């Protein structure tokens, strides 16, 4: 394919008024959610899309000076310069061209991820096949057929009272999701109470803890407290405990894994190689790569193959728009040992019919970015056999959701002066 044009559009979905979420020792402010929409066009007129950017996945609230706006500039500048006019025999060739552009490593990997997904979208349209068929294409008759019906776990609760988590989890269970994942960090005693309530409230629905807050707060969560909370959650049946220590704390992962608790991690790794490195520690039971951040399908497939035959399950991280949801869904559909996908629950989600809204906060752009909506029913996403990603982006969002400068979220601590 010959690349004719590459564009990056920084978009913001405001949270008005900003929301304040109290956690142990401080308050988290939520101002907006940002997205970079990447559009790639070929000389033949095919268009591929993806979403990417200076990702919150890497848990950089301020991105060390980078933002979604500066990432869009990078796409429109060095990335476009490296690829426009080039003829690619293989999608991986684009990785090499971007690598030669001399970008900082974390931004290089974000750029490679965005372009890889968009090029797979184009390739699928060129051959008239969904991406999951491209990824699963094999001459081996023993390879299983793609799985187009994908169980979802709901990624929801953030910094509530224990009863609030339990009520939200009950709604998620009624909607048919396989599991309910929430963000604790409201104090060790209240965190234990939340685990107890979820264990008592949920029957067939699993619960997971996304505990990145524990290593952000000050004083309340020392290493021994974290170990006790992880052990308590595991004893009460938690499906996994996610990011219980700082992402690069390999020894911390190993120490907690020694308790027998099921741990998850990987979303904060800067590269696909980092995912595999975390897997090699044998400390995580679930490895959470993301095609938007770990060098696209090309990079994530390396991690999927690493997990094959080992005692670690690849479960994609996915937190953002429906474009990201469907992009990661194609990976799940194609990979023989991958079966589960994260579904972020935002307010007023049009595919969820519940008496009480289980959404975390508003993110209207997450839904408006595509025309139509994904097929989600009873906690299962069904992929179509439409070519490429199987979606159409509504480019009106470029005008409707202009970029707003500044951090999307802030952590303010009680002892700050």
UniProtKB/TrEMBL annotation:
Keywords: Magnesium, Metal-binding. Coiled coil: none annotated. GO terms for biological process: amino acid catabolic process; carbohydrate catabolic process. SUPFAM superfamilies: Enolase C-terminal domain-like (SSF51604), Enolase N-terminal domain-like (SSF54826). CDD domains: MR_like. GO terms for molecular function: hydro-lyase activity; magnesium ion binding. SMART domains: MR_MLE. Its cofactor is Mg(2+). Residues 162-262 form the Mandelate racemase/muconate lactonizing enzyme C-terminal domain. This is L-alanine-DL-glutamate epimerase. It comes from Halogranum rubrum.
